[in-house]
Amino acid sequence: MQIANDVEIKGAYKRYGTNVVLNGINLDVKQGELLTLLGPSGCGKTTTLNLIAGFLEADEGAVYIKGRNVTKIPPYKRDLGMVFQTYSLFPHMTVYENLNFGLKLRKVANPEKDKRIARALELVKMAGLEKRYPRELSGGQRQRVAIARALVVEPELLLLDEPLSNLDAKLRHELRAEIKRLQKEIGVTTIFVTHDQEEALSLSDRVVVMNQGKIEQISTPTSIYKHPETEFVFQFIGKSNSFEGKVAAVDQRKVTVEMNDGITYVDRGNVMGGCSDCKIGEIVKLYIRPEKVRIFSTDEEPEPLWDLHKAKISQLNYLGTTWEVEVQLLNQSIQILTPQYDANWCPGSEVLVGWNPSDLMMIKK
Ligand SMILES: Nc1ncnc2c1ncn2[C@@H]1O[C@H](COP(=O)(O)OP(=O)(O)O)[C@@H](O)[C@H]1O
Ligand SMILES: [Mg+2]
């Protein structure tokens, strides 16, 4: 049986004057999944979330929640829990009162009410702080309470708009792991907005990468990283090195590309958009992730089928678990991330660098 969709957006467009903010959004969110909307500031993430929440109506298109067309239904009739980046809590109410607010509206009676509040606070590790006011809590604690307040009403759908953006790095890591655990424990279908790619990759069942009001790709975190479908996704997710080259030959299996110091090969499967129209002489861009470039030590036998190039180290930075090495190859800087380190390396060292052709991506310009 096919898993039901909890949310569907069909053909949504939104304009402000001449500014096209959503340019044909189609999206399905599966039951129980944690989906993130990821993209740079201004790409339309909050607008998309607001369509689902009902704070905003699209110029065209429709929104369905659990199969029901809610396009014209106001937010308070949509059964949602929401958490925002800031100002989520009512400042003049205690933690208990903040959680109680939605339950009162829904006419949940005691003792069920107190039981639910206690359980929600326990879930976010805030039990015992019922009497505090938001000003008496740290930023992280406030967002925990905001999450508890969204969950206490047992919503059909949990919507979070950059809830961790105002927290410091350590707390952000901690809380995102907890949101993940919590979401799986309760099983509530969740849409999480972020501009932080690491956050999206670590949290999500699926990631929706957005750019200028459009969806570029919807995939699992690993396939977003390993098989980006557009140049935007490739550049937005993770780091990459790029070179220019010229197509020298195309065969069944690979494309041969000329670079200044020789040739390199690209698997046909790694040509973005396919290679049915690859032309000899065409200028293309080649991309490779920093962790996919290897530096071979002098006493090491390089991998036989790899592309090898002579390069010179220009910088070495120790990052804790890895080394970031910058080398000059063909008058170009290349970033390399490597867990191994050779004590002989120093700025100015001549080294052999290489990569597996299957890790090289090619984009036609
Ligand atoms: N009420 C509004 N009036 C005019 N422009 C808006 C309004 N709300 C959002 N926008 C514009 O729509 C675009 C997308 O906004 P938003 O969805 O908030 O982006 P994101 O959440 O991805 O940062 C931005 O260019 C923003 O300036
Ligand atoms: Mg936003």
Describe this protein's structure.
The chain folds into two domains: 5-236, P-loop containing nucleotide triphosphate hydrolases (Rossmann fold), CATH 3.40.50.300; 241-364, Beta Barrel (OB fold (Dihydrolipoamide Acetyltransferase, E2P)). The protein contains eight helices and 20 strands. The protein has helices at residues 45-53, 95-105, 112-123, 139-152, 169-186, 197-203, 221-226, 231-236; strands spanning 5-16, 19-30, 34-38, 60-65, 68-69, 80-83, 157-161, 189-194, 206-211, 214-219, 241-250, 254-259, 262-267, 283-288, 294-296, 307-318, 323-329, 332-338, 350-355, 361-364. A six-stranded mixed β-sheet has the order 6-7-8-3-9-10, with helices on both faces. A five-stranded antiparallel β-sheet has the order 13-12-11-14-20, with no helix packed on it. Strand 1 and strand 2 form a beta hairpin. Helix 3 crosses helix 4 (139-152). It starts with a strand and ends with a strand. The model has no long low-confidence stretch (mean pLDDT 91). The protein binds adenosine-5'-diphosphate (ADP) and magnesium ion (MG). Magnesium ion is lined by residues 45-46.
Task: Tell me briefly what this model is.
With 365 residues, the chain is of the alpha+beta class. 23% of the residues lie in helices and 36% in strands. The chain folds into two domains: 232 residues, P-loop containing nucleotide triphosphate hydrolases (Rossmann fold, 3-Layer(aba) Sandwich); 124 residues, Beta Barrel (OB fold (Dihydrolipoamide Acetyltransferase, E2P)), CATH 2.40.50.
